[in-house]
Amino acid sequence: MAVYGYARVSTNEQNLDRQIEQIRPYLEDERYLFCDKASGKNFDRRAYKALVGSSETLPLLHEHDLLVILSLDRLGRNYEDIREQWRHITNILKADIKIIDMPLLDTRGGSGTLDGRFISDLVLQILSYNAQKERENIIRRQREGIDIAKIKGKHFGRPEIPFPENWNEIYEEWKAERITAVKAMERLHLKANTFYKFAKDTCENQKSVRGEKIS
After folding, report:
1. pLDDT digits (tens, 9 = 90+) for 132-178
2. Model's pTM, two decimal places?
3. pLDDT, tens digit, 9 for 90 and up, residues 53-66
4. Cβ distance 105 to 111 under 8 Å?
5. What is the DSSP letter of 106?
């Protein structure tokens, strides 16, 4: 049986030392410590793929080997993906996992491998359920907050740009071709898309006042 350690931080600027210090006592050989500086949003990571294998490489983890990780979020951030990887390691590779800061997540267990894996799987299911419920609650609270804000008259998105005070004067000069659109934008301090939007709205309003059909 070999003992492997895995540590991860999300960016190159973050430090792995704390995780390594916690994992080191479990290792017989520090060459079996694998580290990634990569996001936890997925498992496309060089060191992790070396441990569990990929379409191009065979896994380093074998039956009865032990993978030691400081905390579950160092394995990944998405609990559905974590459960899938957990099953791959424990059921396909038949290796064990120990999460240091959560003693119940240790598939070796205190009363035999089968019991240990059952308890760990159960704890992981509960964690996954709680994580999913919290995600749903966050979305629900956000939606409720937006609905309440809308009732109170709060608008979301970019604020509407008001028509410049001298809009009508310069718009009529531009329509009469006494100035160019570029010159009109300069005098109004507007970008092209805003200028033409205002021009379109003004034209439609004038047609509506005159009772003309708006195409």
Report:
1. 677 677 788 878 777 777 776 666 556 678 899 899 999 999 999 99
2. 0.60
3. 998 899 999 999 99
4. no
5. B
> What's the token pair of residue 31?
């060459």
Give the H/E segment covering residue 67.
Answer: strand 66-69
Query: Using the 8-state DSSP alphabet, how is residue 76 labeled?
Result: -
**What DSSP state is assigned to residue 90?**
I
Residues of the chain with CATH 3.40.50.1390: 3-132
* Contact predicate 120/82, CB 8 Å: no
Work out the widest C-alpha separation in the chain, in whole angstroms: 91
215 is catalytic: no
CB 134 within 8 A of CB 106: no
d(CA 5, CA 19): 10
May I ask the CATH architecture of the domain 3-132?
3-Layer(aba) Sandwich (3.40)
What token pair was written down for 4? 């492997």
Distance, in Å, from the CA atom of 142 to the CA atom of 199, rounded to the nearest integer, reads 37
Catalytic residue among 10, 39, 71, 128: 10
